[in-house]
Write a structure and sequence with these properties.
Helix content: 55-70%
Oligomer: single chain
Protein name: Core-binding (CB) domain-containing protein
Radius of gyration: 37 Å
Shape: elongated
Organism: Roseovarius ramblicola
């Protein structure tokens, strides 16, 4: 972008468009600009001004002050916005876009493309690919070149991101980008999927729990009874999904008992000891509470099942076969009026 200095300096700041604070900000820049040797306004000039002032907000304050200036051109605003972002990166110790695209491999892109269309992350992604092409001495990439560049990645996603970045720059429709890059992406995708499918399933060793058949017989009997019950036959019985969670917690509890040399039992002491072992393993308090709550509920189920098998009463037998009253309907008999 090129704006003659005479045009910028001839439009002295008027209080008609600026508040006193904004007027001071713009006047400060115009005074510096009048003393400089620059003949055009671009992001490099703004960055030079920001570097001389040395504060983080100098360019953003100038951008805010000039936001009310109706005669600003769109290119002027774009250059100032790019300078504001690059100045922040410089103050944060990060590479600026103007420094990245100063490399020789960026010359064709700077001359023919609008690099403001892509973000700083896409700038870095494209810079890595251009640097690799320059180091390899490649000028017109082929599908094999894209595959060689993508060999360091575990999937085709970086190549797809590179394709998206190049598409934003509206480059000419050349075969290396229109044909070879999509071909390389398809081959990379096939390689990664083939590798995942060819891997055999990993069988992790059981380190923190015992096998289901190693549980005590009464635990296994109760779990088997729960799995055989109909979900609607007893409102107190756990669901089929919950039974698996109970079994997993019981296997972990049995493992804790075996590793500490204690009998495998579901008591308060065993559960407290298991909680301490889980804490030593780094389990969070929420996970420990969930595991313990499962064990407590199973202990209640186990006690109920044991009492029922030991002494089933006639009333409980009748209640087990009698249908439940609908919700909201009283089961008490109405009093018979006297007389």
């Amino acid at each position: 972008m090129s704006n003659p200095k005479s045009i910028i300096l001839s439009e002295r700041v008027s209080s008609k468009f600026f508040s006193p604070a904004k007027k001071r900000v713009v006047d400060r820049f115009l005074e510096w600009f009048a003393q400089s040797d620059a003949t055009k306004i671009d992001r490099h000039l703004f960055l030079a001004y920001g570097h001389e002032v040395g504060t983080r907000a100098v360019l953003s304050d100038l951008e805010k002050a000039l936001s009310t200036r109706s005669s600003d051109e769109q290119d002027f605003r774009a250059e100032l916005r790019a300078a504001v972002l690059d100045h922040r990166r410089r103050m944060d110790g990060n590479p600026m876009v103007v420094d990245i695209i100063s490399a020789p491999w960026w010359i064709p892109f700077v001359a023919n493309c609008d690099l403001d269309r892509i973000s700083i992350l896409e700038i870095r992604r494209l810079d890595a690919w251009l640097r690799w092409m320059t180091d390899k001495g490649r000028t017109s990439p082929t599908a094999a070149d894209f595959l060689e560049y993508g060999a360091r990645f575990d999937s085709e996603v970086p190549l797809v991101s590179l394709q998206t970045t190049l598409a934003k720059l509206d480059l000419p429709n050349i075969p290396s980008l229109a044909l070879d890059l999509p071909k390389a992406i398809a081959q990379k995708r096939a390689q990664c999927r083939g590798t995942r499918h060819s891997q055999s399933r990993t069988h992790w060793p059981r380190e923190l729990s015992v096998a289901p058949e190693e549980l005590p017989s009464d635990w296994r009997t109760t779990l088997k009874a729960f799995r055989s019950l109909d979900a609607l036959s007893d409102n107190q019985a756990p669901s089929h999904k919950t039974v698996g969670s109970h079994e997993r917690r019981l296997r972990e509890l049995a493992w804790s008992c075996c590793t500490t040399g204690n009998p495998v039992e579901l008591t308060a002491e065993a559960v407290a000891r298991h909680a301490r072992i889980m804490k030593q393993r780094g389990c969070r308090a929420t996970s420990r509470d969930i595991n313990i709550s499962f064990l407590v509920r199973f202990a209640e189920y186990l006690t109920t099942a044991t009492d029922t098998r030991a002494a089933p009463s006639e009333s409980s037998a009748r209640m087990s076969v009698a249908p439940h009253a609908p919700i909201g309907v009283s089961t008490q008999r109405a009093p018979v009026p006297a007389g």
